[in-house]
Amino acid sequence: FGDKFKKPEGSWDCDVCMVQNKAQDVKCVACQSAKPGNVSVLQLLRVKAF
Ligand SMILES: [Zn+2]
């Protein structure tokens, strides 16, 4: 795959159905699952781990 397959900025993949969603989508367009990977929480965990 080349540059044509690049994801749009901020896009995210649903953990449940692997559908790619847009950055402005807070829920999966296919299965309505909440957007995974809360960035702020992940960053907090990383700070505590190190
Ligand atoms: Zn989904």
TrEMBL record:
Q: Tell me, what is an example of a GO biological process annotation in this record?
A: mRNA transport
Its cellular-component GO annotations read: nuclear membrane; nuclear pore
Question: What InterPro entries has UniProt attached to this entry?
Answer: Znf_RanBP2, Znf_RanBP2_sf
Q: Which GO terms describe its molecular function?
A: DNA binding; zinc ion binding
Keyword Protein transport included in the entry's annotation? yes
In which domain of life is the source organism classified?
Eukaryota
Give the keywords, sorted.
Answer: DNA-binding, Membrane, Metal-binding, mRNA transport, Nuclear pore complex, Nucleus, Protein transport, Repeat, Translocation, Transport, Zinc, Zinc-finger
Q: Name one Pfam family in it.
A: Zn_ribbon_RanBP
Subcellular location(s) per record: Nucleus membrane; Nucleus, Nuclear pore complex
Q: What is its main location?
A: nucleus
RanBP2-type domain: from which residue to which, for each copy? 8-37
Q: Which family does it belong to?
A: Belongs to the NUP153 family.
Instruction: Please identify the protein, giving its name as recorded.
Output: Nuclear pore complex protein Nup153
The protein's organism comes out as Sinocyclocheilus rhinocerous
List the taxonomic lineage: Eukaryota, Metazoa, Chordata, Craniata, Vertebrata
